[in-house]
Amino acid sequence: MRFIYSQWDDSMIDQLRQMRDLMSIFNYLLLQVNGNVKKALQIMEQLKRMGYLPKDADLEEFKRNLEENQIISVSPTGTNLTRRGERSLRKDSFDKIFEQLKSSTGGRHPIPKEGGNSDEILPERKKYSFGDNLRNIDFRNSLLNNISRTADLGLNMEEEDLEVYETEQATNCSTVMLIDISHSMILYGEDRITPAKQVAMAFTEMILTRFPKDTLSIVLFGDFAQEIKIKDLPYVGVGPYHTNTKAGLQLARQILLRRKSANKQIFMITDGKPSMINRSDGSIYKNPFGLDPVVVNRTLDEAIICRKKKIPITTFMIAEDPYLQQFVQKLTELNHGRAYFASAQNLGVYVFWDFLKHRRKAG
After folding, report:
1. Angle 48-51-53 (CA atoms, 0-180°, nearest 5)?
2. What DSSP string runs through 168-207?
3. What is d(CA 342, CA 321) in angstroms, rounded to the nearest whole number?
4. Span 100-115, average pLDDT
5. Dist. CA 205–CA 95, nearest whole Å
6. Is the pLDDT of residue 136 over 60?
7. What are phi and psi of 35, to 5 degrees?
8. 3-state SS class at 52
9. Which residues are CB-neighbours of 261 under 8 A, at least 6 positions away?
């Protein structure tokens, strides 16, 4: 195989690299401003004026690229994210957390063991993606891909060369991801909702591409709980809400009991204590100060109900307050679930690692 290069254009490569960096910034800002494209672009202009972006960054050209690639749509009614843009945002979130997972050190997040997998190998093949069983690699096709890409026999294998045999899962899994949208998620100047959304979008991308037979539902909880569609994730924001953890767990349980999957689970991302419940008579009881026994006990009751229905709760607590950790530990103990005390920076690593590890055990 022979390649002929007429001219190497360094400026073009620099421009592509800059576009990639600008895209990363744009995607993160989109999550911060709840999918408001106009506002995200305005912030980028402001960042450039303040010197945080290169002076030669052509934001008008960047915007034209977004429109030409159908990431955004511009109309008389406004500038909005397209469905393709929403998918791009999910993939970007996945790529970032996947890279973080691969580079995590210190043995804190080992790769799940492959034993006990009950997948049935199929003759069809696909490109390798994160989480695929390495035992299913088709080495012959992977080697041919490597030679085709590099035009030599150096065997400098890259991830993009790998192909794996398709498998048929003996069991599938239904997951409800609970996201806390109470006011504390942005309290004291700490942004916890943006990392939570990024993790939710990355997790969604993994389910849709790697485990298409699984089901995933997204539930938000503040003063009340509500299920949203996957496409609505970029536009989620916090409100002046209390934390009705019981309502979130209850709705998640109701959703999962309608699923036919052999394995059911709840993933809950939160940073605060439960501070509100809906009583059986329809009245509301709330207390934002401390851990109110009435609120805590009713919430723990829901954890016990989930355990009896064989629905484990995995809690990802993005807070360090000892009394909040004690509450989570009690909830985990009563539910026979799992708990991780994560920071906003490493939240995604914990979520991905836990899902893949325990899903394979269940398989």
Report:
1. 50
2. E-SS-EEEEEEEE-SGGGGGGG---HHHHHHHHHHHHHHH
3. 12
4. 44
5. 10
6. yes
7. 80, 10
8. coil
9. 171, 172, 173, 174, 214, 215
* Closest alpha carbon to 265 in 194, 131, 342, 361: 361
Q: For the CA atoms of 204, 205, 207, 213, what is the dihedral angle to 10 degrees?
A: 110
Under a CB-based contact definition with an 8 Å cutoff, are residues 126 and 164 in contact? yes
340 - beta bridge partners? 316
Taking the C-alpha atoms of residue 280 and residue 49, their distance in angstroms, rounded to an integer, is: 55
Least confident of 73-87, 104-118, 243-257: 104-118
Q: What CA–CA distance (Å, rounded) separates 295 from 298?
A: 5
| Averaged pLDDT, 63-77 | 92
Cβ neighbour number for residue 188 with a 10 Å cutoff? 5
Residue 105 has pLDDT above 70, yes or no: no
282-314: pLDDT as tens digits: 889 998 887 889 999 999 999 999 999 999 999
Q: Work out the angle at residue 199's Cα, subtended by the Cα atoms of residues 360 and 101, and round it to the nearest 5 degrees.
A: 60
Give the CATH fold of the 173-362 domain: Rossmann fold (3.40.50)
Residue whose structure tokens are 């008008």:
60
Contact 167, 119 (CB under 8 A): yes
- Give the DSSP per-residue string, 198-255: HHHHHHHHHHHHH-TTSEEEEEEESSSEEEE-GGGGGG----S----HHHHHHHHHHH
In a 3-state reduction of DSSP, which class is residue 131? coil
| Phi, psi of 308, rounded to the nearest 5 degrees | -65, -25
18: tokens are: 């800059």
The pLDDT value recorded for residue 119 is 52
Orientation of helix 37-49 relative to helix 59-68, angle to 10°: 160
Domain ranges of the chain: 10-81, 120-168, 173-362
Which region, left, alpha or beta, applies to residue 155 given φ > 0 means left and ψ of -120 to 50 means alpha? left
Six token digits for residue 172: 């599938």
